[in-house]
Amino acid sequence: MKDRRLTPANKRVADPSLESEWPGVSYVDPEPYAVNWPLVDLMNAPEGHRDRQLLFGETVGLYETHEGWAFVRSDKDGYVGYVPKSSLAHSPEATHRISAAATHVYEQADFKSRDRMRLSHGCLLHGMENENGFLKIAEGYVPMVHCSPVGEHPSDPVSVAKTFLDTPYLWGGNSRFGIDCSGLVQAAFTECGVACAGDSDLQEDMLGYELPADAELKRNDLLFWKGHVAMIVDETRLIHANAHHMAVSFENTNDAIARIERQGDGPVTSRKRVLLPNAQLI
Asked: How far is residue 14 from each of residues 8, 34, 42, 69, 274, measured CA to CA in Å?
């Protein structure tokens, strides 16, 4: 049975690649759009519950608009769901991303001018020019110091994850304003140029290679539990978005493993190492 989260089909439309498997609907090539709200929930159904979130500038393929809701697939990770159609627009290709924890879009190239919106780490921007230390975009001006070119990737996912320290925990969250365990891992590895799924079970299946139980854990290794994931920071600590602290936090690795099992969420199910760009297998 196909995973609903990754299957671009509903009761009315489907991707043409599913024609032999999903009969009785219209087969539609997706139309490219980008998110033009600061943040939007990607729902499992119109007026449903949040599966994930999409950030400003992230691109999607739109299959259908029905009663104000757009059925889309995220280009970042293939996740499908529903967003308000008004949250989408046609947009030029991104040139920059927000690499600071968060930023503001100002009315003018002046930090004393009125701010128009707040954007999270990871948002994508189409910059038109650099004006007085601000990146000019269609919506206003963003401090250049908060931006990085989209083609430049940091090399250390843990350093990216630290950007989110103390971010409130939010189930299905993907932003500096609220994030969950898999959202943190996705943000960290995606920024470092590693394709990464949105949910922890998908990440466990798709990311990296399995480590033996007695292998020494190293920085950026991943620990998985049923429904949870954390990143190794050093010999004694991990970082994760967790409901125990209701935030992104450091925690002693052995203490976290014991606590999670003690609270009834079971043992570690796998230990994974991800091959980072320009790295060598160890």
From this structure: 6, 20, 18, 16, 33
